[in-house]
Automatic annotation (TrEMBL):
Residues 1-125 form the VOC domain. SUPFAM superfamilies: Glyoxalase/Bleomycin resistance protein/Dihydroxybiphenyl dioxygenase. Keywords: Lyase. GO terms for molecular function: lyase activity. CDD domains: VOC_like (cd07262). It comes from the Bacteria. This is Lactoylglutathione lyase. The keyword Lyase applies.
Length: 129
């Protein structure tokens, strides 16, 4: 299992604002920020559960667009809240909340495109029907 992940974004403040709101329903908040004075050039923000900087966005040259990230939710309601919050924060719909049994029994997910076109998903793996 990974400890943390990160990727470059085209507009750090815009992406910060998007993720701050979109990830809140999943229990992710801003955990830390680092600046050029600490790194010599990189600036970034880390989101995650309290004290766990698991999901980083930052400056730099993007290596790709269309990255797919799936974040675990604790309930179908959290998936729905993530989707609504992400859309309200400027995300674009890429799949409304709902069951996706073709992925796995009990799979409930929702997909949005972030401001850079990355596909961000919230998924709840509930009991198989």
């Amino acid at each position: 299992m990974f400890d943390h992940m990160g990727f470059a974004v085209s507009d750090l403040q815009r992406s910060h604002d998007f993720y701050l709101h979109a990830l809140a329903p999943l229990g992710y908040g801003l955990v830390m920020s680092i600046g050029k004075e600490q790194t010599g050039g990189y600036e970034g923000h880390a989101f995650g559960p309290a004290g766990q900087p698991a999901f980083w966005i930052g400056t730099g040259e993007a290596t790709s667009r269309g990255l797919h990230v799936a974040l675990r939710a604790q309930s179908a309601e959290q998936v729905e809240a993530f989707h609504a919050a992400a859309l309200a924060a400027g995300g674009r719909d890429n799949g409304a909340p709902g069951p996706r049994e073709h992925y796995a029994p009990g799979y409930f997910g929702a997909f949005v495109f972030d401001p850079d076109g990355n596909n961000v998903e919230a998924v709840y793996r509930g009991p198989a029907a």
